[in-house]
Design goal:
The structure holds two protein chains of two kinds. Chain A starts with a helix and ends with a helix. By secondary structure, chain A is α+β, with helices and mostly antiparallel strands. Chain A is globular. The longest helix of chain A has 44 residues. Chain A is built from 28 helices and 24 strands. Helix content of chain A is 54%, strand content 16%. In chain A, the strands form four sheets. In chain A, strands 1, 4, 5, 6, 7, 8, 9, 10, 11 and 13 form a ten-stranded mixed sheet that branches. In chain A, strands 16-17-22-19-21-20 form a six-stranded mixed β-barrel. Chain B is of the alpha+beta class. Helices cover 52% and strands 16% of the residues of chain B. In chain B, strand 1 and strand 2 form a beta hairpin. In chain B, helix 1 packs across helix 2. The radius of gyration of chain B is 16 Å and the shape is globular. The chains are: A alpha+beta, B alpha+beta.
Chain lengths: 878, 106
């Protein structure tokens, strides 16, 4: 008879052991086992097992009830004591709970933000198999990284690489007008995609079939909101729309999908099948010579190409194979043009946060900000938590007597730990409830700040609830752990006798926590200063041209000199110029070979195409040479202006005006440098100024730039619109201000700065709240000391000074800790910007002085209160 | 002194009857034998604990044995208070039965 076979079921034993009250747990399980064995011998194992289980099941509620009953009795007592403590120290408790509430509210809001950022593109069913082809293009030593890739690449790759199951290209175009009945609807952007788009990306179809929706030319898929905008309903399958021009494009609606989730890296108002382009081209060019569609163009650089790989396919392997395909098909062509290209694959989930490429769809986020905010959330929570621990341990001296008494009456250490833990978890729960209320109140402001639409519903999602629960438990646990473990280990006799003052150990811990708290606050102050300064710097940076009071009008017709002259007749209009490019817009590249250089020494430059008076209108500065002028007819043919950076790269100066540049990328056209313009920023300040050339277009242009006088902008705009409508009847007047456009170049930065500013402020606020409470507590502890000193003749100022001294020492130490950390981290952050400020010493001093001042104010206020009090009162305390 | 409940009375009587072998299992058997009913073990732990806490019984631990999975037995005995309470309840029962010779037949 082996003993193992005969012992009762393990799970049952375990249940019993835990359910039986402590006083019978050991003996009890033995009793059960003895009877179990007897039944095994008499009636067999199965019967015994049945008996055992029935006993366990019957016993559980019995004991649990008994256990709960007694716990509830104790719990009632704990609760009573907890509330008494709260009430006795109202101010203290208020600071404690509200500090925690603010901390939690910050943490929660940031949690919302971070989880939203991380949720991008996670809704696609096989998201881990979707990759995007990027292109890194190197010409003449400069590399530019694009989110887009050549149109012809994805189909060519899919054709010869078996791992690629499906591919699809997504194109973004500007401006579409669709007519339904009498109504014309305008769309600022529109998109087109290959047949397999809906096989790769998961979207719910309200109407239509995802597999066939884009298989035919002239197919259009609409998101619900667009369908409702045009038709007022969603059951529009088979309806047709057309463009309102003389050679209309007529499209049929083959699908209506749910609106694209906010957390998708692409958004579209409509999606046209790319087959439409081929069909239309064939239709239009039947009699003319057949030309290649842009869809087959290895140089047509506008496709967002997505690959759907086979399960378990190795993306690096595929990447290498793509390079082989490129080499085989276009290797010679690329070499001939002096271009080196790489086509890395990027996973779908990296697109939103880890994409820092040119020509990205929409505004991608930045993983660094996710880290930054998570860190801020953590820091705020740490500060709040430290406050909580500080205040609880500070209070612990007062509770020592209670602990002693409880011990005398037979409380176990375990029970005391439970009591204190429970109490602090209860408090943190209060903090959470208050924090939730704060979050609800702050949500509209936060939405405004982050440009997202969080709602209360989202707050109650499973992850958030789990997050909340963890926060409560962790905060409560950390905050409660010190008082719980230290207090419960006090010797009862000492505490009851009152020998126990606030222990050395706990006050050391408190100081440590205060130092850390302050170090974090100081760090945040420095951070805020640096960020504000950098923002200010970017706002006021000399762009190399004047971007104020510049209106850019988008030309929807051919502009002429007559139009320009009419504009100039208004005295409010200072200057007018036409151009194909304006600063802030995306620019193409050209490759140039300077005169007298070998063919390897090409320079890659962004190319502007500008009309006459452009440089004057933008108030750019010609350093050497001259602007384009009608007096020099040869300008239209061969004139070119380069920027200082380009001149410096080639090594040209004033004497080199008139030298030749050969445009390698455009039929080796020969250009003559007629002027060198001062460097100007035409991209976000995050990017460095690169070599740039200005080409002349003598007539027409896509944009009209008008410099206006700052007075009465509204009426000048009215004039512009009136004249535009008169010149181009029926066309929409669309314009923007250059400075607004540049501001939108870093919406992320502005957002981040604001968010960081508010949360940093709150963190500092919570830290000072804690300092205030701690100072008042410590000084209260010293009431007797103050009383005696006063009786012995101490002066008020002297007392205030001696009471404050101790705290200031720690605040100073915190400063010393925070400064190098802040310097390193903020310097790193600044490296994100090509044009940035230096961190100045005054920022450190300012943050030091700020913290010191507030600390001195809070502490000396408390000290002063204590110092002017009647010593008799203080000494009667005993 | 509070009156004993029926379960407490039965447990005390079983302990008295079992003398030196009064630990939970025989007590449990004894009660099942007397009442002719199935009991759960849990049902005797709680009254037993209350009895001990209120000083009706005392207990000590025996040696651990293999047949109990290495757990020891807890033996119970009656304290004078326990004995007194049994006498009291017996007196009451006797008084209650006084004059009633046979139940149910009248």
């Amino acid at each position: 008879m082996t003993s193992k076979k005969n012992s009762p079921p393990r799970l049952g034993q375990w249940l019993l052991k835990n359910a039986l009250p402590d006083y019978v747990s050991k003996v009890g399980t033995g009793d059960y086992e003895e009877i179990y064995k007897r039944i095994v011998e008499l009636e067999g194992r199965s019967k015994a097992r049945r008996w055992y289980w029935s006993q366990v099941i019957k016993a559980l509620p019995l004991f649990l009830w008994d256990y709960l009953y007694w716990s509830m009795e104790m719990f009632k007592n704990y609760l009573k004591i907890a509330f008494r403590n709260l009430k006795r120290q109202k101010g203290f408790s208020l600071i404690n709970i509200s500090g925690l509430a603010i901390g939690m509210a910050c943490c929660l809001l940031i949690l919302l933000y971070v989880s939203d950022e991380l949720s991008f593109d996670r809704f696609h069913k096989n998201g881990d198999r979707i990759y995007r082809i990027l292109s890194y293009s190197t010409i003449g030593g400069t590399t530019r990284n694009f989110a887009i890739s050549p149109s012809a690449l994805a189909p060519a790759a899919a054709e010869s690489i078996p791992e690629i199951e499906l591919y699809c290209r997504l194109y973004e175009f500007g401006n579409m007008r669709l007519q339904h009945g009498e109504n014309i609807h305008e769309f600022p952007t529109w998109h087109s995609a290959d047949e397999d788009f809906f096989s790769i990306f998961s979207h719910d179809f309200i109407e239509g079939n995802p597999d066939t929706a884009l298989r035919q030319p002239y197919s259009l898929v609409l998101p619900k909101s667009t369908a409702i905008r045009i038709f007022g309903r969603t059951d529009v399958l088979g309806e047709t729309l057309h463009t309102p021009n003389e050679n209309p494009l007529e499209v049929k609606i083959t699908g209506v999908i749910e609106d694209i989730p906010k957390n998708s890296h692409y958004h579209f108002d409509m999606l046209l099948s790319t087959l439409t382009f081929r069909a239309r081209q064939n239709e239009q060019q039947q009699d003319r010579q057949r030309r290649q569609s842009f869809l087959d163009e290895p140089y047509y650089f506008q496709a967002y190409s997505y690959l759907f790989l086979q399960e378990n396919a190795d993306p690096e392997d595929v990447q290498a194979k793509i390079m082989a395909v490129v080499e085989a098909r276009w290797g010679d062509l690329l070499r001939q043009r002096g271009v080196t290209r790489e086509y890395p694959l990027q996973t779908l989930k990296d697109i939103h946060l880890r994409s820092n490429y040119e020509a990205e769809l929409g505004h991608p986020g930045n993983i660094n900000y996710v880290y930054l905010f998570s860190a801020v959330a953590l820091l705020v929570l740490i500060i709040a938590c430290f406050n909580f621990i500080n205040l609880s341990t500070a209070k612990s001296a007062k509770r020592a007597k209670e602990v002693g008494l409880r011990k005398v009456f037979g409380a176990y250490k375990k029970q005391l730990i439970k009591q204190f833990m429970g109490e602090s978890i209860l408090l943190s729960m209060f903090g959470l409830v208050l924090g939730l209320i704060l979050v609800l109140l702050a949500l509209p402001i936060f939405n405004n700040l982050t440009n997202k639409q969080f709602n209360t519903y989202q707050l109650l999602s499973l992850t958030v609830i789990l997050g909340l629960f963890t926060i409560i438990m962790v905060t409560g646990f950390i905050a409660g752990s010190f008082p719980a473990f230290v207090l419960s280990s006090f010797h009862p006799v000492e505490t009851v006798q009152g020998k126990f003052a606030s222990g050395k150990k706990s006050s050391l811990l408190r100081r440590f926590l205060v130092v850390i708290q302050f170090a974090i606050s100081i760090f945040m102050i420095i951070g805020i200063l640096v960020i504000l300064k950098q923002l200010d710097f970017m706002k006021n940076k000399d762009f190399g041209f004047n971007k104020n009071h510049m209106v850019v009008i988008i030309n929807r017709g051919r502009v002429t000199d007559a139009f320009k002259n009419q504009l100039l007749q208004n005295p409010e209009v200072v200057s007018v110029s036409f151009s194909h490019s304006v600063p802030g817009q995306y620019l193409g590249d050209d490759t140039f070979l300077p005169e007298g250089r070998s063919s390897e020494e090409t320079v890659r430059a962004s190319a502007f195409f500008i009309g006459y008076d452009f440089i004057e209108t933008y108030e750019m500065e010609i350093v050497w040479g001259r602007d384009f002028s009608k007096k020099f007819p040869s300008d239209t043919r061969e004139g070119i202006i380069i920027n200082q950076k380009m001149a410096a790269d080639i090594g040209w100066g004033e004497s080199d005006i008139g030298k030749e540049l050969v445009n390698v990328s455009s039929n080796n056209a020969r250009k003559k440098v007629i002027g060198i313009v001062k460097n100007f920023h035409h991209k976000s300040l995050k990017m460095e100024i690169n070599p740039t050339v200005l080409n002349l277009i003598p007539q027409g242009g896509r944009y009209t730039t008008v410099r206006i006088k700052p007075e009465d902008v509204a009426s000048t705009l009215g004039f512009l619109e009136g004249l535009y409508q008169k010149t181009f009847p029926g066309q929409e007047f669309e314009y923007y201000f250059i400075d607004d456009d540049f501001r939108s170049k870093y919406p992320e930065e502005e957002k981040v700065q604001k968010i960081y500013f508010y949360f940093g402020f709150l963190a500092i606020f919570v830290a000072f709240l804690g300092l205030y409470a701690l100072a008042s507590y410590t000084i209260e502890q010293k009431t007797k000391e103050v009383g005696i000193r006063k009786v012995l003749g101490a002066k008020t100022q002297g007392l205030v000074f001696s009471l404050s001294k101790e705290f200031l020492k720690w605040v100073l130490l915190a400063n010393i800790l925070a400064w190098p950390t802040a310097f390193i981290i903020m310097n790193n952050w600044l490296k994100n910007f090509a044009y940035r400020i230096d961190i100045a010493w005054w920022m450190f001093i300012a943050s030091g002085i700020l913290t010191m001042t507030i600390a001195v104010m809070t502490i000396s206020y408390q000290a002063f209160k204590s110092a002017i009090s009647d010593p008799v009162e203080a000494l009667r305390y005993e | 002194m509070k009156l004993l409940t029926r379960a407490e009375e039965m447990i005390l009587l079983s302990i008295l009857r079992l003398k030196d072998n009064a630990y939970c299992v025989p007590i449990f058997d004894e009660i099942q034998r007397i009442t002719q009913k199935k009991w759960t073990m849990g049902g005797i732990y709680i009254p037993l604990y209350r009895l001990e806490k209120n000083g009706y019984v005392g207990s000590h631990l025996g040696q651990p044995t293999a047949e109990r999975g290495g757990k020891s037995k807890r033996f119970y005995w009656l304290t004078p208070k326990g004995l007194k309470s049994l006498e009291a309840i017996k007196k009451i029962e006797k008084a209650m039965w006084e004059g009633l010779t046979q139940v149910g037949t009248d």
